[in-house]
Recover the amino acids of this structure.
């Protein structure tokens, strides 16, 4: 039996967006037994890995622990170092046939040095130098034209495996479960979330549409003040149906709550990806650096309201120079009417509504409200990527996109021990 390791050292949502890759690896060789799948994650996400991927062997690493403010003698820092050494020894002792390193962080590349570089795919260190395989190197070039491109992160990682699992089999089709509306109060980046005064009218509108009169607030303990502020802004007839669970759920509890909902209101968060993973309908609000074509909810049956102001999508690492104008359309009363179910209202300028689905390449967001002037360019881009990956022959890919994205070193240089990898994994 083959043994495969996937190194995913990013956050909550990224772990859930690894699902298509894991499904692809599990099903890639139908003539023999499925490989034994291992997953290396931040130690804090081991409970999530166990719930989301019960058939996968998960290993933990202290990748996102608190800083060592107390210095080298801090016992917690020493425990993390010793724990990581034990994990490195455990992984080194296992004989993996293939290792996929999904993150381009220094720690992930350091993990790659535990293994023969010939079996590592993705991001690695070789002869002390950071290296990207051809596929992630190509995909990173797409970031220069984010407005016109659209490749979901789940599909980007799945392509590391070469033969990808059919996209419509990855997450279940979203259907209401009867448990009311869940509200994710905020994400890690405050400017990508809606403040209570903007969220309250939208939640009130949704409450009038959903039959189950129950609202569940989800978030960390730090978001409890935002929960209280939101409740104060709701009409008493709505507020009396609110259950505030901010800071009161463990991972198992979050799974149970989201799995039971009719709908999840959320910015671009890990909880959003959990809802898609569980087949719970999502209504997502994307603004600032969040771009639904890259990290939107995966599968059929979700709705995304995307800010399409001229500066969107921006870089979350850069300061906003436009006064968060991308937030303004969400405060427009027209959006509340749309959220309530109106079929006659046009969205405010700078906002487009999308329904999610799949095509030959993977996840796709199709506009149903508002105007997306870059939609034709995005369709052409997806045809190009689909043909490149061998899943979209005959879609009429524009050869000019090859001239834009391909570079001569992609096929001209001998890369020593990395030569022969190609753009798409083959085994």
């Amino acid at each position: 039996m083959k043994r495969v390791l996937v190194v995913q050292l990013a956050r909550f949502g990224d772990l859930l967006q690894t699902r298509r890759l894991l499904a692809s690896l599990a099903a890639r060789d139908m003539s023999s037994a499925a490989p034994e799948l291992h997953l290396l994650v931040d130690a804090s996400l081991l409970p999530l890995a166990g719930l989301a991927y019960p058939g996968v062997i998960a290993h933990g690493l202290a990748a996102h622990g608190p800083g060592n403010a107390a210095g080298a003698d801090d016992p917690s820092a020493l425990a993390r170092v010793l724990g990581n050494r034990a994990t490195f020894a455990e992984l080194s002792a296992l004989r993996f046939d293939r290792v996929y390193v999904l993150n381009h962080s220094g720690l992930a590349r350091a993990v790659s040095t535990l293994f023969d570089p010939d079996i590592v795919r993705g991001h690695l260190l070789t002869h002390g130098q950071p290296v990207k395989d051809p596929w992630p190197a190509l995909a990173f070039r797409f970031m220069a034209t984010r407005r016109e491109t659209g490749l979901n992160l789940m599909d980007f990682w799945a392509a590391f495996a070469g033969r990808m699992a059919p996209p419509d089999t990855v997450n279940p089709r979203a259907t209401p479960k009867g448990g009311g509306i869940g509200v994710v109060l905020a994400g890690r980046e405050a400017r990508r979330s809606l403040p209570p005064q903007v969220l309250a009218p939208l939640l009130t509108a949704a409450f009038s549409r959903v039959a189950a009169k129950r609202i569940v607030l989800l978030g960390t303990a730090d978001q409890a003040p935002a929960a209280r502020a939101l409740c104060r802004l709701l009409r008493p007839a709505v507020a009396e149906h609110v259950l505030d669970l901010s800071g009161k759920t463990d991972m198992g509890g979050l799974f149970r709550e989201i799995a039971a909902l009719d709908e999840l209101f959320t910015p671009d968060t890990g909880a959003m990806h959990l809802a898609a993973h569980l087949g719970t309908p999502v209504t997502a609000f994307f603004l600032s650096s969040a771009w639904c074509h890259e990290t939107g909810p995966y599968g059929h049956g979700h709705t995304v309201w995307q800010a399409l102001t001229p500066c969107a999508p921006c870089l979350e690492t850069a300061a906003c120079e436009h006064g968060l104008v991308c937030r303004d359309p969400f405060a427009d009363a027209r959006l509340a009417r749309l959220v309530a179910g109106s079929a006659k209202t046009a969205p405010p300028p700078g906002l487009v509504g999308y329904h999610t689905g799949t095509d030959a390449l993977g996840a796709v967001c199709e506009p149903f409200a508002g105007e997306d002037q870059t939609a034709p360019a995005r369709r052409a881009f997806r045809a190009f990527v689909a043909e490149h990956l061998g899943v979209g022959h005959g879609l009429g890919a524009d050869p000019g996109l090859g001239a834009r994205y391909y570079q001569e070193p992609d096929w001209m240089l001998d890369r020593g021990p990395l030569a022969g990898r190609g753009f798409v994994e083959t085994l």
About this structure: The first strand starts at residue 3 and ends at 7.
